[in-house]
Amino acid sequence: MFRKLLKSGVAWGLQQTHFGGQSSRFVAAYHRTVDEFPRDPDSGIPSLYISVKMLERQLDWIGRRFRFVSLDELMSLPPDAAPAAAVTFDDGYVDFYRQAFPLLKRKGIPAAVFVVTDLVGTTEWQIHDRIYGLLARSWRPGLAHALVDPLLSTMPQATLLRVIEHWQSGAALTDPDRRSLNWDEIAELHRAGITIGSHTRTHAILPAESKETVWSELRGSRLAIEARIGAPVRHFAYPCGQFNGAALKAVEDAGYHFAYTICAHRNRAHSHLTIPRKVLWENSCLDAAGSFSPSIMGCHVDGSFDLFKGCEMNHGGALCWS
């Protein structure tokens, strides 16, 4: 409680003094959109969820300060253009189609969804959901949450999958609401103006993989989407926001024009391939009373909170600047 009170007070003070300044460009990143935020931590990784009600509240706040644009338009705006924001969703869960898309369509807000192509049309869980689900069965959900990112980022996915299979011991993880989009749904979204981007073939963390695997993940996912939607794929989102120098070169060589991370730092030589986004979820902007806080939301958007912490990502020596 004290921490929440302190955060609320600091956020209010920063916003009153305009400490972070007014951002001219902002990219929001979301994952899962659901009717009601799940209170049971066993349901899944909490920080991936946002309820439709909270998503609308956050979008309304952003919309009062920015003009919503597509990623293509955002990237083509001149430096002196009016403040603009883009909305993105990672992983390609089916709840984007069921929950987020109707809200976005009703409000006339363009958006992008980054899909994991090998999971499209399947019921297989995302690898981070599988890890969390298995760990949460055996340990406390909080500990499971803390271990997901370190496990994903420290070993190649092929090795991690062998560990998962051993843990799973034949016990299937099933939940039809956690499936990925299928190609028919993706085609409909594309026709409606939603930008379809790549999030690799299997949600592989690029710095942990071999050069050959990285190339297969990047080029294979782009070609798969293009073959299905009949349009170029220009945008890529790094799984877990992880990139290093080799990954940046591979993304460029694979034919992507723009790539997005989830930290506030950019590579000097590849600023178009290290575009920062802010990940938001149900509890991102709640005050100590559990209510939506415009001040906390403002600090997330203008980057005030980021000024007090270093980059949490390991970019493998890639030179970054804020």
Total number of beta strands: 12
Kindly report how far apart the N and C termini lie: 31 Å
Series of H and E elements: HEEEHEHEHEHHHHEHEHEEEHE
Q: Considering the protein shown, what is the CATH homologous superfamily? A: Glycoside hydrolase/deacetylase
How large is the radius of gyration?
A: 19 Å
Explain what you see:
The strands form four sheets. Strands 1, 4, 5, 6, 7 and 11 form a six-stranded parallel sheet that branches. This protein starts with a helix and ends with a strand. The mean pLDDT is 87. By secondary structure, it is α/β, with parallel strands linked by helices. It has helices spanning 2-16, 52-63, 71-76, 94-107, 127-138, 141-154, 157-168, 183-191, 211-229, 245-253, 294-302, and strands at residues 25-30, 32-34, 49-51, 67-68, 84-91, 112-115, 195-198, 235-237, 258-260, 266-267, 278-279, 320-321. It contains eleven helices and twelve strands. It has a single domain, classed as Alpha-Beta Barrel (TIM Barrel).
